[in-house]
Design a protein that fits this description.
Elements: E1 2-8, H1 14-22, E2 32-38, H2 51-56, H3 58-62, E3 81-86, E4 88-89, E5 92-93, H4 95-100, H5 104-110, E6 114-121, H6 126-138, E7 142-150, H7 155-168, H8 185-190, H9 192-204, H10 210-216, H11 224-246, H12 257-285, H13 290-301
Parallel strand pairs: 1-2, 1-3, 3-6, 6-7
Antiparallel strand pairs: 4-5
Helix pairs in contact: 11-12
Length: 309
Amino acid sequence: MSKILILYYSQSGQLTEIIKNFAKPFENTDDYTVTYANIKPVTDYKFPWSGARFFDVFPESVEHIPCELETLDLGDENFDLIVFAYSVWYMSPSIPSNSFLFTDQAKRIFKDTPVITLLGVRNMWVVAQEYIKQKITDLGGNLIGNIVLRDRAENLTGIVTISYFMFSGKKGRFAWFFPKAGISEKDIQGVEKYGKIVKDYFNNNDFDNLQENLVKAKAVKINPYLSTTEQMAYKRVFTKWSKFILKKGGPGDPARKTRVRIFAWYFPFAILVIAPIEYIFFLIFAPFRLKLIKKEIKYFSGVKLKSNN
């Protein structure tokens, strides 16, 4: 009997729905046992967010600073496949998901084990996934596949709908002309087909072409503008702001509240004003960057680190 571990942290419950549907092909059979392990911070991140709390987690998210977690009861900790499901906060893995990768338990269970990453995101995720790739490699794991479910709303529309979802806890329509927030129910239900693909490859004990077939099944879709924008924003903007805030203390420190508030004003300005300008420049220069764009689409669709290419 093969043992499947699904590791996840779901703040709103959306990622829980995703993993349950993904795992359906492995359930109700004598060939597999599926263990669901919900990562639990000692001090949880309550949902829906408050404005102050949402912006206060920014520097720790960007700098990958772990929080304290409860120890997971995983039995003998010996698994044949790990599905690491996570969401993205500020172009980084959520703090609880990232924190688990710093634990001794992670060192034990990831070593020499095939790993699938399963993301539930708004639309920007390549920077976070590059970090996760490296962490899995450092832990001795073998990343064999990546699946990304995303909010299909246009970028600015998605900002409005996801903000409504995060701060109200309601996934319905914000107004009649806006779509429902988050990942669509159709995509959440449809993730089962990726579970079937993974199961077929797992049964054959051959993962060489797994990611290629997942991409063909549209498990990953790269938006060149968004991938370019987030790489630039993370390096040139987010890391500078995070270090600026952290100079005044850690999470919830009153000394850093002013800097967090300044960032809270800058953040929507960057999205609503700076991002559209960058989009125009991207369209202008894209014809001269076609070779690089195609190369990045191929790379970010895969599971290998650049150093391994």
